[in-house]
C-alpha cells in the first residue's frame, strides 16, 4: 500500500479549495448514491476500526470470550515493558539510519537528474526497486548478503576483509535492513525531490547568476531554502513510513538475532498473533500512532513545512 | 524541446553561465558533467545489478552455486529452478538439483495474487471514481467536511486499523477467503478518491452543463462524458492500485494464511523457510521471486512513463 499512501500524503498539500458556484439546489440524493459504497468502506474499514482499536487498548482481550475493561493497565504495563523500550530503540535506530542515508542519496540523485539527465528512462530505472514488492527485495538481498556464498561477502573477502554476518549479528541486523530499504526507496524519494526542484522558478536562479553566486552558494542560498517545503513534506512522509517497517524484518531476521531487529510493528504483530494478546497489541499500536503524530507535528513545526519562501 | 536543449536550459538556469576564455558558452561536456554522469551511472548500476544477479542465480543449478559463488555467469546453466518452481519437475528430480522437495504451489499463488489484485483494482477504482465525482461535481451539504474526514484517515497507520479489521473479517467468517483479503480496500482508499477528484475538478464544465440542459442526469454524464474523458488518470490509478495490491504482504499474511487463498508475497516467505535439506534452494527462490516480479516488470515496461509521470503529477506544485 505504501506507494499510494505516500503519494497521497504529498497530494494533501495541494488540496483544491475551489468550490463550484452555488446554484441554490443540492444534488444530495444523487450524491448519496455516488458516495454510498465509498462511505460504507470508510466507516466499516477506517472509522470504526480506529474507534474499536482505541477501545481495545483499554481491555484485556485474548480473542476468546469478550474484551474485559481494565482501564489504563495496558499502558502502565507498556511503560515498564523492557521489550517495548527495546523495540522503540531498535526502530529509532532503523529510522535514523534509513532516513539519513535515503534523504542524502535522494537529494544527490534529484540534483543530478535536474542538472544532467531529465530523461524518463533514467528516472524509470531508478524508480524500479520501489515498484517491486518488499518481500521480493528482501529475499533478493537476503541471498546477495548471505554469509557463506552471497556475492557481497565474496567481494568483501576479495578486498581482504573478514566476512560479515549481515543478518546474523546483533550489530549488523538493523543497519543491513535499513540499507536494503535505502536501496528500495532512494529513487522514489529522488523523484519526489526532483518534482520539487522543477517547481522552483527559473528566474530566481537567473537573478542569483547575475549577482555572481557560484554553484555552492546557489545551492545553499537558493535551492535548499526554496526546496524546504517539499523537503519537509518528503521527510514527514518517509519518516512515518519508516517507523512502520515490517515486511523486510519479517522475511529476513524475524526480529532476531535475539531482539536486535524486533522493531515496533514486529512486536505488535507478535503480541497480537503470536501471544493472542489483542488488548496489549492495540495499546501498543495506539502508542505508535501517538508517536507518529508527535513526530510529524514536530517536523512540521520546527522545519516550518507549510511556509514557503516564495510567498 | 529536445533533451539536449532542456538539459542546457536547466543548467544555465541553475548555474551562472560561466564563459570560457574566448567568450563562447561552455561546451556541454566538461569535467563537472562527466563526473555527474559517472555518479548517475553508478546509481543506475547499483539499481540494476541486483536484478541481474537475481536472473543469474535463477538460471544456475543450485548445487553449483556454492562452488561458483562469484562467477558472473550462471553457475552450471539450467532451467531447473524455473521448472521446479512451476511444478514441472518430479520431487526426485527437484531434490537431486538442490530443491527442497517440498512442493510450492506457485501456480496457485500466482492465480490467487491475480484474483485478489484484480478484485481490489477494479472495485476500488470504480467506487472511488463515483465518490470522487460526488466530491468534485455534486452539490451537497457537508461535502468538504466529509472529504477532509476521508483524507484524515491517511494519517492513521495501517497497523492501527489492521488489528480491528482482522477481528471484523474473522467475525464475518471471511478469514481465508478472497473477499476477506480484498474487501477492506475494495470500496475506497483516501488516495484513490483524492487522485481522481483532483482530475475531475480540472475538467471543463461546459460539456456537462450542455448535457444537463439536454436533460441528461448525473449517471449519464458520469458514464458517458466524465469517465471516457478520464481514461488516462483512471489507467494510472489502476496501475498504482494493482501494483500496491500485488505487493502487499502484511494484510494477506493476517487473513490469508490458508494455502488455497495464499498470495505470492506470503507464499514466497513460506517458500524461503522451507529448506529441510539444510542448504536453502537459492536458485529456486530467485526463480520464484523473478516470476513474482514479472507482472510488475511487464506493466512497468508497457506503462512505465505513466507511473514515472504520476509521481511528478502528484503535484508538489
Structural summary, described in words:
The complex is a heterodimer of chains A (311) and B (317). With 311 residues, chain A is mainly alpha-helical. Chain A has a single domain (2-13, 81-302), classed as MetI-like fold (Orthogonal Bundle). Helices cover 70% and strands 3% of the residues of chain A. Chain A has 13 helices and two strands, in the order H-H-E-E-H-H-H-H-H-H-H-H-H-H-H. In chain A, strands 1-2 form a two-stranded antiparallel ribbon. In chain A, a hairpin with a 1-residue loop joins strand 1 and strand 2. The longest helix of chain A has 34 residues, at 82-115. Chain A is globular and about 75 Å long. The model of chain A is unreliable at 1-23 (pLDDT under 50). Chain B has 317 residues and is mainly alpha-helical. Chain B has two domains: 29-104 and 274-304, no CATH class; 112-262, MetI-like (MetI-like fold, Orthogonal Bundle). Chain B is globular. Mean pLDDT of chain B is 82; it is low at 1-26 and 313-317. The interface between A and B is large, with 131 and 121 residues.
List keywords for this structure.
heterodimer; A: 311 residues; MetI-like fold; two-stranded antiparallel ribbon; B: 317 residues; 16 helices; disordered C terminus
Short description:
By secondary structure, chain A is mainly alpha-helical. Chain A has 13 helices and two strands. The longest helix of chain A is centred in the N-terminal third of the chain and has 34 residues, at 82-115.
Q: What is the CATH architecture assignment of chain A?
A: Orthogonal Bundle
Number of beta-strand segments of chain A:
2
Strand content of chain B: under 5%
Provide the structure class of chain B.
mainly alpha
Shape of chain A: globular
**CATH homologous superfamily of chain A - what is it?**
MetI-like
Distance between the first and last residues' Cα of chain A? 34 Å
CATH class of the largest domain in chain B: Mainly Alpha
Structural class, from helix and strand content of chain A?
mainly alpha
